[in-house]
Amino acid sequence: MTDLNTLESDVLAQVAGAADLSALDAVRVAAVGKTGSISGLLKTLGAMSPDERKERGAAINALRDRVQSAITEKKASLEAAELDARLARETLDLTLPGPYRRKGSVHPTMQVMDEMVSIFADMGFAVAEGPDIEDDFHNFTALNFPEKHPAREMHDTFFFEPKETGERMLLRTHTSPVQVRTMVSQKPPIRIIAPGRTYRCDSDATHTPMFHQVEGLVIDKGIHMGHLKWTLETFIARFFETDAVTTQFRPHHFPFTEPSAEMDVQCDRSGGEIKIGQGSSWLEILGCGMVHPNVLRACGIDPDEYQGFAFGMGVDRLGMLKYGMPDLRDMFASDSRWLAHYGFSGFAAPNPASGLS
């Protein structure tokens, strides 16, 4: 018959002498584990008489409880000691400079858009906004798009499922619907720019399904192409921060302007870079023209009394040209390394006084 007092003294001595948690766990397993010394005593109760089992079982269970209680207390003590040692070991000297952490920055698209808004605001333009989800009237019909125009097809435009009435909403393909909404809600004179996201079914190195545009609109009496030319040439010179800008206008076709033109800027493409204001190459950067009389009529403006001009340019494309970004798709890749390289400080807001970039 095992002496319980001797066994208890021996086990408690082992518990007290455990130097760490692993040693304490070994004592626990040896004493109260499935094959432990105290657990083994409980297995002998089946061979005893009822009276012996009652007396011996109570003593063994009490011994097990005391040992488990001692183990729990010792474990708490060892854990506290380990924590104290870790805190003492892992000290932090607050007088030392902190580790480098990547700082947040302004995305190039937002930086370029802010630069453009700053320039046009200095020229007297207000900022107008509209919804990304548009109807056919504001995106196409009011802008003089023919019924069978390719832009109305699924391969060019993101359409939603038709409504019960058959009308299909769509993701706007340009910010021109903002111009329509402005002409409908305001009386001339009007001078606005419409920055925002636009969507088209297109994707390559210089096109993405979602991109950003800034469009401009001026409606007043006596407006002509000379006003348009001066506005755009002034913007380009200020945006690229050089007075040595040479531009040319080429005839083009847009449903919502007549006459229409594309504007090219003289540049140097040698050496794998594009340098504005030098060289003998030409680069198309925007579309523009005089607002079509049909657009004015659709918005309730008399084309015999008022005239206007409009223009539109890609924010992301201008950012590529100004800051030397080779692939437009990188702007939407969420690569932290790319953002760290091309990002801008949030404390350097573009303005005409201190500079744009």
What name does CATH use for the topology of the largest domain?
A: BirA Bifunctional Protein, domain 2
Kindly state the percentage of residues in helix: 25-40%
Give the low-confidence spans. Answer: none
* Structural class by helix and strand composition: alpha+beta
**Helix count from the secondary structure assignment:** 11
Proportion of beta-strand residues:
15-25%
In whole angstroms, how far apart are the ends? 91 Å
CATH-level-2 architecture of the largest domain: 2-Layer Sandwich
Shape: elongated
According to DSSP, the number of beta strands is: 10
Radius of gyration: 39 Å
Overall residue-averaged pLDDT value: 85
Order of helices and strands: HHHHHEEHEHEEHEEEEHEHH
CATH homologous superfamily placement of the largest domain = Bira Bifunctional Protein, Domain 2
Which CATH top level class of the largest domain fits? Alpha Beta
Number of domains: 2
Let me know the largest β-sheet: 8 strands, mixed
Describe the structure.
The protein has 357 residues and is of the alpha+beta class. The protein folds into two domains: 4-89; 108-342, Bira Bifunctional Protein, Domain 2 (BirA Bifunctional Protein, domain 2, 2-Layer Sandwich). Helix content is 39%, strand content 19%. The protein contains eleven helices and ten strands. The chain has helices at 4-17, 21-32, 37-43, 50-89, 108-122, 136-139, 176-185, 225-239, 293-298, 315-323, 336-342; strands at 126-127, 133-134, 170-171, 190-199, 210-220, 247-254, 257-268, 275-276, 281-291, 307-314. Strands 1, 4, 5, 6, 7, 8, 9 and 10 form an eight-stranded mixed beta sheet that branches. The chain has a two-stranded antiparallel sheet with strand order 2-3. Strand 7 (257-268) and strand 8 (275-276) form a beta hairpin. Helix 2 packs antiparallel against helix 4 (50-89) and helix 5 (108-122) crosses helix 10 (315-323). The longest helix has 40 residues, at 50-89. The protein starts with a helix and ends in a 15-residue tail after the last helix. 29% of the residues are buried.
